[in-house]
Amino acid sequence: MILYLHGFRSSPQSFKACLLAERMQQLGRAAEYQCPQLPASPAAAIAMAQDCIKDCDPAALTLVGSSLGGYYATWLAERAGCRAVLLNPAVKPPRDLEKYVGVSTQYHSDQPFEFKREYIAELQALQITRITRPERYFLIAATGDEVLDWREMVGHYPQSRQQVIQGSDHGISEFADYAGAVLAFCGIAAAAGPAPAART
Questions:
Q1: pLDDT over 90 at 191, yes or no
Q2: What is the DSSP string of 103-125?
Q3: Contact 199/181 with Cβ under 8 angstroms?
Q4: Which distant-in-sequence residues (6+ apart) come within 8 Å of 188 by Cβ?
Q5: Exposed, middle or buried: residue 11 (CB in 10 Å: 0-12, 13-18, 19+)?
Q6: pTM, two decimal places
Q7: Helices and strands, number each (H, E), in the chain
Q8: Any transmembrane segments, and where (predicted)?
Q9: Across residues 92-114, what is the average pLDDT?
Q10: Which of 188, 163, 1, 195 is closest to 86 using CA atoms?
């Protein structure tokens, strides 16, 4: 199973989430893909994700996390012992999201939501200082990310499989070029196909 965890202010309607859902549907494996709308509270988001994967065999589970979802995916992967794909993951969201305390809107619906000050402490409780099994992680980081620093991402996942994209952006506009490699890492062999060379 694949559990996709979207980023801050994002949703299941994100480009990357929809593209993976479409690929899984084409492969006749739509039932093995989930992408819930995560609540603003990090603790509540983690609880929701844990509920989604509670009956999954870790060997058959991959978390795909984008931006803040990558931070969540890392914590969950360390606890569950499963694989994780990180797409321009947030490495230090307690620092980066401090300025968003208050009311924000979702990207895809303009729906308002409140990011409360106590959520910073919830994020701090999820910090993973060092990953324990690098082979379980696949990092895709774009040097052109206008929101987060790709060098922090690369440094946070040492010895993991890494694909550093020269240029691009925070949303990874060219994600369709990498979706096959992502699904192959998730164990979806039929999607393997040709993939860009990985930087290790």
A1: no
A2: EEE-TTT--EEEE-THHHHHHHT
A3: no
A4: 2, 24, 27, 29
A5: middle
A6: 0.92
A7: 7, 8
A8: none
A9: 91
A10: 163
β-strands 62-66, 83-87: how paired?
Answer: parallel
Q: Return the structure tokens found at 15.
A: 């480009």
Integer-rounded Cα Rg, in Å, for the chain is 16
User: What are residue 109's phi and psi, to 5 degrees?
Assistant: -140, -10
Mean pLDDT of the chain: 94
Residue 104 token pair:
């924000």
Encoded tokens for 2: 């694949």
Q: Is the pLDDT of residue 193 over 70?
A: no
First to last CA, the chain: 25
Is pLDDT of 116 > 60? Answer: yes
The three-state secondary structure class of 28 is coil
* Distance from C-alpha of 161 to C-alpha of 199, rounded to nearest angstrom: 7
C-alpha–C-alpha distance, residues 15 and 19, integer Å: 6
Local confidence band at 192 (pLDDT 50, 70, 90 cut-offs):
very low
Tokens of 114: 């409140």
What is the average pLDDT across 99-120?
A: 91
Return phi, psi of residue 45, to 5°.
Answer: -65, -40
Q: Say if residue 45's pLDDT is above 70.
A: yes
Mean pLDDT computed over 24-38: 97
Return the structure tokens found at 172: 């990874």
